[in-house]
């Protein structure tokens, strides 16, 4: 793993939350997009070298909707940049981590993504991210 790629925050209302984070960081989101396969709309903010992703559910059965229903708004995941996501998935499986999607899938911000089950990472949902070339 190279670095923290971003921190994902589950929100109920993306427009309202964008206004809060615009005030917090003193600048607007640099990107908004929808990831239909995951049932989310996202926006991204930069704060120095750090990236924050806000996630709003677009369907009731999406992982974000389920998270908010169970835990409320807040930090949803920490994403790590990796050089070779397939090799990293295999390495982590060999170390005993449970991978939620063993094949990388297209995520937001032009990334291949895979997730580690929080039960194997002290309650933290970990996302692996690799830039799509």
From TrEMBL:
Name this protein carries in UniProt: Methylmalonyl-CoA epimerase
InterPro entries: Glyas_Bleomycin-R_OHBP_Dase, MeMalonyl-CoA_epimerase, MMCE/EMCE_epimerase, VOC_core
PANTHER family: METHYLMALONYL-COA EPIMERASE, METHYLMALONYL-COA EPIMERASE, MITOCHONDRIAL
Keywords: Metal-binding
Gene3D superfamilies from the UniProt entry: 2,3-Dihydroxybiphenyl 1,2-Dioxygenase, domain 1
Organism: Flavobacterium sediminis
Family: Belongs to the methylmalonyl-CoA epimerase family.
GO process annotations (BP): L-methylmalonyl-CoA metabolic process
Pfam entry (one): Glyoxalase_4
UniProt KW Metal-binding keyword: yes
Residue ranges occupied by any VOC domain in the UniProt entry: 3-131
GO molecular function, one term: metal ion binding
Gene: mce
